[in-house]
UniProtKB/TrEMBL annotation:
InterPro entries the UniProt entry points to: Rossmann-like_a/b/a_fold, TilS/TtcA_N, tRNA_thiolation_TtcA_Ctu1
Keywords from the named record: Transferase
UniProt source species: Merdimonas faecis
Name of this chain's protein: tRNA 2-thiocytidine(32) synthetase TtcA
UniProt signal peptide: none
Domain of life where this protein originates: Bacteria
Domain tRNA(Ile)-lysidine/2-thiocytidine synthase N-terminal: 26-188
Any one GO molecular-function label of the UniProt entry: transferase activity
């Protein structure tokens, strides 16, 4: 995927769900993975020409795995001129050494988001951007159907009352396959996940299932995504037609 195509998808999401307003200070949550680094490129590129001016910062919640080195990410942020913050935590130690959690994903996500949001507020940001893409949205819908019995997926934009923060997901129209292509084309400095259960989660199950369904029924993933966009899901903001 070319940078121009990434910017086009990002602009579409930002415009249709009114994610960015004049004077916003947006923190990009950087895990070190391909998705968050692609989002950093996308918002940095958008910043150059978007009619509403906004500030950009980046922040990483370091879970405490000794093998994780964010030096290359730091250098990328310096190259792009984006302020970068790393929050040191003991989340990995708490989950796997102290609590020995057999199913840590939910608690890990809660702790990561808590640490991220606190740092974002300290940085003076009013918005935080998550790197969820189209595949994440469809996977979440399937997981919600299977394990909660409801048709749901996370919103493109939501407001956190307690933190007084707005969460935005500017890559919602980007396919994961395109992110992988962008990663290779731009040689993104990906920091490999050290989580011991990475690849063995319910989300991975949903990802594999969608891949199989889409192989047997070409286009089914896109149709599921369209159903989500048109599904009047509670909490989703109204969609404004994208006019250029």
């Amino acid at each position: 995927m070319k940078l121009q195509q990434l910017l086009s998808y990002t602009r579409k999401a930002v415009d249709e769900y009114q994610m960015i307003q004049e004077g916003d200070h947006i923190a990009v949550g950087i895990s070190g993975g391909k998705d968050s680094l692609t989002l950093l490129y996308a918002l940095h590129g958008l910043q150059r020409f978007y009619p509403q001016r906004f500030e950009l910062s980046a922040v990483t919640v370091d879970l405490g795995y000794e093998e994780c080195d964010f030096t290359a990410v730091t250098e990328l942020c310096q190259e792009l001129g984006v302020p970068y913050h790393i929050v040191k935590t003991d989340i990995a130690h708490i989950l796997f050494d102290e609590r020995k959690e057999p199913n840590p994903c939910s608690l890990c996500a809660k702790m990561r988001k808590g640490a991220l949001n606190q740092e974002v507020k300290k940085m003076g940001c009013n918005k935080v951007a998550y790197a969820h893409h189209k595949d994440d949205i469809v996977e979440t819908m399937l997981l919600s159907l299977f394990f909660e019995g409801r048709f749901y997926s996370f919103s493109p934009k939501s407001y956190l009352d307690r933190m007084e923060l707005t969460v935005i997901r500017p890559m919602m129209f980007v396919d994961e396959a395109d992110v992988i292509g962008f990663q290779h084309k731009f040689e993104l400095p990906v920091v490999r996940s050290r989580c011991p259960i990475d690849g063995f989660t319910k989300r991975q199950y949903a990802k594999d299932l969608i891949r199989e369904l889409n192989r047997d029924n070409p286009g089914v993933k896109q149709r599921m995504f369209t159903a989500i966009l048109n599904g009047n899901i509670q909490g989703w903001p109204p969609r404004v037609p994208h006019v250029r």
